[in-house]
Amino acid sequence: MGVNASARYRLDMKRLRAVLDLLTTVLVLVAATVVIALAVRNWRQAPIETVRQAPGPELPKTPLPIHGVETIGRTSAPLAMMIYSDFQCPYCGQFARETWPSIKKNFVDTGRVLVIFRNLPLAIHQEAKGAAVSAECAARQGKFWAVHDLLFQNQLQLGPQTIRTIASSAGMDLNQFDQCMQDKPDETIARDVQSAQTLGINGTPTFLIGRIQADRTVKVSEVIRGAQPEGRFKTAFDNAATNSVSE
Questions:
Q1: Residue pLDDT, tens place only, 32-83
Q2: Cβ contacts of residue 155 below 8 Å, gap of 6+?
Q3: Residues 37 and 159 in one domain
Q4: 235 lies in some domain
Q5: Other CB atoms within 10 A of residue 40 CB
Q6: Both 71 and 31 in a single domain?
Q7: What is the domain range of residue 203?
Q8: How many domains does the chain fold into?
C-alpha cells in the first residue's frame, strides 16, 4: 500500500470511528429520553394508580356527626365535604396546593359546601403526627386553616423548627403555642383516627361528600379517594344536591 493510500485508509477509519461515536451518542440520548419520559408518566399517574389498587371504604350506613371538628364555610351550607388527611402525605399536599384553593373559592366561599377536616396521620409519615398536633394547637387560637395551608406548603420539612416558624407566620401567640405543643392535644387526633378506622378509611386523602341534615349530621352519598381534579368534586356536589331534591 502506497503512502497516499495508507493516509486515505487512516482518514477513512478516523471518519468511520467519528460516525460510530456519533451514532452511539445519539442512541444513548434516545434511550435516556425514553427512560425519563416513562418515569415522568408513571410519576404523574401514581396517585390514580395508587387509588385503583387500594380497596376503598363503603358508604357510611348512618349520618356522620360534625360537632367538635374543624370546619370552614357557612353553617347554612346544604352540602358537606369531610376530608381525612395527613399533613405529610404527598397526595394530600397535591390536593391542598392545586385543587383546594379553587374548591374553596367556587363552592365554600359561595355558601354551597361546608368543609370538615379530620386528621389521619399515617404511621409511615414520621412528621405527620407532630404536624397534626400543631394544627390542633392552631385551632385553639382560631388559626387552624391558616396553619393548614402553611403546613401543606412546607410539607417537605415539617420538623419542630419549621412548625414553630409556621405558627409565627400565622400570627399565633408563640408562648401559648409552645405550651400547647408540650401538652400534646392527642385526644382530638385519636378521635379522628378512630372514626377513620370505624369507616374503613386507611388511606389519605379520603373525601366523604353528602348533604347536611337538620340535626347537623352528614348523610354521605359518595366517597372520593386521592388527589382528584376539581371537576370530580363538582360532579359529586351536583349529585348530592340532586339526591337531596329528589328525596
A1: 554 444 443 433 333 433 333 355 678 998 999 998 899 999 999 999 999 9
A2: 87, 88, 90, 93, 131
A3: no
A4: yes
A5: 10
A6: no
A7: 64-246
A8: 2
Q: Which pTM value belongs to this model?
A: 0.76
pLDDT in tens, 193-217: 999 999 999 999 999 999 999 999 9
Residue 159 and residue 95 in one domain: yes
Does residue 161 sit in the same domain as residue 223? yes
pLDDT interval class at 7 (50, 70, 90): low
User: Nearest 5°: phi and psi at 69?
Assistant: -120, 165
Both 227 and 140 in a single domain? Answer: yes
What DSSP element (H or E) covers 113? strand 113-119
- CA neighbours closer than 13 Å in the CB half-sphere of residue 18: 6
Question: What letters, b where the CB count within 10 A reaches 16 and e where it falls short, cover 142-176?
Answer: ebbbbbbbbbbebbeebeeebbbebbeebebeeee
End-to-end Cα separation, the chain, in angstroms:
99
